[in-house]
Amino acid sequence: MSDSGEALARADSDRGMLTLTAPEYEPTLLRAIGDWLPRSGRTPVLVCGMAGARQGWHEAAYLPVPARLDDLARGAASPPLDDPRLDVRLLPGLCQRRDADGRTFDVMRGEETQLAGLAAREPHFSGLACLPGTHAKWARLEAGAVTRFKTFLTGELYRLLVSQSVLRYSLGEDDLNAPDCREAFVDAVREIEAAPESFSARLFGLRAQDLLDDALPVGDARSARLAARLSGLAIGLELAGVRQALSMERSVTLIGTETLSDRYALALQALGHAVQRLDGSAAVLAGLGLARASLPT
Amino acid sequence: MSDSGEALARADSDRGMLTLTAPEYEPTLLRAIGDWLPRSGRTPVLVCGMAGARQGWHEAAYLPVPARLDDLARGAASPPLDDPRLDVRLLPGLCQRRDADGRTFDVMRGEETQLAGLAAREPHFSGLACLPGTHAKWARLEAGAVTRFKTFLTGELYRLLVSQSVLRYSLGEDDLNAPDCREAFVDAVREIEAAPESFSARLFGLRAQDLLDDALPVGDARSARLAARLSGLAIGLELAGVRQALSMERSVTLIGTETLSDRYALALQALGHAVQRLDGSAAVLAGLGLARASLPT
Hints:
The structure is a homodimer. Chain A is α/β, with parallel strands linked by helices. Chain A has a domain at about 155-280: 2-keto-3-deoxy-galactonokinase, C-terminal domain (Nucleotidyltransferase, domain 5). Chain A contains 9 helices and 11 strands. Chain A has a 6-stranded mixed sheet, with helices on both faces. The first copy, chain A, has a 3-stranded mixed sheet with strand order 2-5-6, with no helix packed on it. The longest helix of chain A is centred in the C-terminal third of the chain and has 22 residues, at about 220-240. The two termini of chain A are about 20 Å apart. The model of chain A has no long low-confidence stretch (mean pLDDT about 95). The interface of A and B includes residues 97, 107, 160, 166 and 199 of A.
């Protein structure tokens, strides 16, 4: 990363916590970035995400909330290393314990760095941030610190229902640009946000509607409409779960991929909320930059 | 079945709609019951469940609600047969369309025969019946007719979460007789019934609790407690979905296996409801008996 926060080069690997043992992390990292390292001196490498989990490379213990986002580096851990060119710091995740203020057990790893990216742009940011995904996170920030957060199983629930449940016979490609799919999505968001208790019945209702509803189009248009509706039910349930937090905020900052952020923006706008957006990859880079600035030497 | 409704013999097969093509049903049936058939004359064989689905043996079209339970046989369909000893009637399922009274699209196949079993015992039964299972059904009966019903994906949702989601790392054997598991189950039922909007966050909360909660026991006792809690969350969401119907009824008739009915009884009693119980297999037999009595000749 340049001093102005631009990425100078990029390398990817599909290896991670689910496929690597602890000793395999260093060679995997070297395969990706070894060519970038000067022959002499130690190059600082900042790492966020599951590499710092107990089952990852080396544990970087969770920092409890409230936690300042400009100070994540104080919880960084250094794994044992073989290559003298590396100086690796694993950033910690955040945790939350049950308390009298209504907080419940929760954890994040990786998303705290994206939130730090938000704080890098607005150091004293206060407000509500949403990070859509497999395990979607909502975080309340106050003056650049995370004070509480809540994780929803939205993405995973959706994927399981699409691929493994009886609904798979009725669902097609989930493309909100297909005819009437935005409407089907938004209607479902509104229905569940207003009546979250009906979530499980509405799921089976998708199957029944496929069997019975003569007003639906046939073929791909039918299955696309039902897939859009399922997505709306899953996201609507999440929005019902943050209703109280949303009632105190005019707007929400979305941090994530363009596709998912589009979908959440549509849902939130349908419920009368404004959104700001921050690209998820840009947020990671900005968060790592902020952490680097505060790294203990 | 004897004239008094007792089963005289029993045969099972694990083949069904998911593994049989239409022409395979008759030989599969004959392998199971061929030895019982007299050499001459046609023996009536009444069939309920998915054999009457469009993808089954031969379609017996859904009867729309309201539907009298002593008259299911009027919708029976006869598949083409090769063996002259057989006279097969496939009983219909029930369907419900969206209407101005708040009904939504729904279907059942098989459960209507169990409900007919209830009507066989109490011909003018009025009240609320619950049939727990993969796709749990709640039906309102008025004077021996089903007037509306609602299906919940409870059992399937539970199974997917236990076996396929990130929660599988935290869940163990789900045995409510293990220490403190009944309490964990009932607490979860109450929590979600009162706040169904928190369902998806409570799911991830199980994982976070496993990672963070020092007050939980360790090992099998920990994973059993969390599994009981997941079951409570799933059933609690269903009970939240029938809150309005439950508010009009003092008691619920449970029709199902002993294990599942025990669990639902516990949940319903925790919310202040009384339960009656009817064994699921006995209900099928009684329902088939009632249908036989009204079979068009």
